[in-house]
Task: inverse folding
């Protein structure tokens, strides 16, 4: 993966929090990053060229009228006012290449001095097996590497619910850990489609590969997730955007 800085632009080293989507149902993570780019006034500073992303091109993603500003598959924006870097992924990863892509984006984050990575994504509402407390309104769930069980005290204080389906000793989570850990000598394999169980749904998603890759690079990583269905997912994106702003603002206060 190569980071190409736009001509005349300069990378701000103070933007030490990286926010990016993990593609999933409803494209909620991508919509949320678009909202963050627009609401923070972030400026595009470059793009990432990765061989495992499918090519795509668009016209002026944020202007009210198309003006010939080309949009690329993986763009990098910076918001100095919030000390954040936002990476917007506009095209999917080639089939079977998610592990390689996650390795590359984690290497970029580590080499560019990021201290905290926030991954925004969505989960299939049909997978929500436990009771949903609607009295609290729509909920955002999190997964963090602050503790071995995925718990994060600061996320708890913000009212997020921990993703209880995370099990670091589960076979698929252990597989992800092994493929990103260069010192792991245990050869594990991911179950075939016929062998997959309900609990394997979560580690099979892109956010899980990204979480494991960032964790293996020694970076602080938080995944913020919401359950949704296909359709009009703009309200879900607004929910995830509001909650992610609370998370990275609280992190800025801590550091």
Result:
């Amino acid at each position: 993966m190569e980071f190409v800085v736009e001509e005349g632009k300069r990378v701000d080293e103070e933007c030490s929090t990286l926010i990016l989507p993990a593609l999933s149902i409803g494209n909620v993570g991508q919509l949320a990053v678009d909202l963050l780019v627009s609401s923070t006034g972030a400026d595009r500073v470059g793009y990432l060229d990765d061989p495992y992303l499918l090519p795509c091109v668009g016209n002026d993603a944020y202007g009210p009228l198309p003006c010939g500003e080309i949009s690329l598959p993986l763009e990098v924006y910076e918001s100095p006012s919030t000390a954040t870097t936002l990476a917007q992924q506009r095209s999917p990863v080639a089939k079977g290449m998610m592990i390689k892509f996650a390795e590359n984006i984690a290497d970029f984050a580590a080499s560019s001095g990021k201290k905290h990575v926030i991954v925004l994504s969505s989960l299939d509402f049909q997978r929500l097996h436990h009771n949903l407390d609607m009295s609290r309104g729509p909920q955002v769930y999190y997964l963090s590497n602050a503790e071995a069980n995925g718990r994060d005290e600061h996320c708890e204080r913000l009212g997020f619910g921990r993703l209880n389906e995370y099990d670091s000793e589960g076979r698929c989570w252990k597989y992800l850990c092994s493929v990103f850990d260069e010192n792991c000598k245990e050869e594990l394999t991911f179950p075939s489609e016929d062998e997959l169980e309900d609990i394997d749904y979560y580690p099979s998603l892109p956010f899980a590969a990204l979480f494991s890759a960032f964790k293996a690079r020694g970076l602080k990583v938080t995944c913020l997730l919401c359950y949704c269905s296909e359709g009009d997912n703009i309200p879900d994106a607004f929910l995830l955007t509001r909650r992610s702003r609370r998370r990275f603002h609280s992190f800025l206060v801590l550091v």
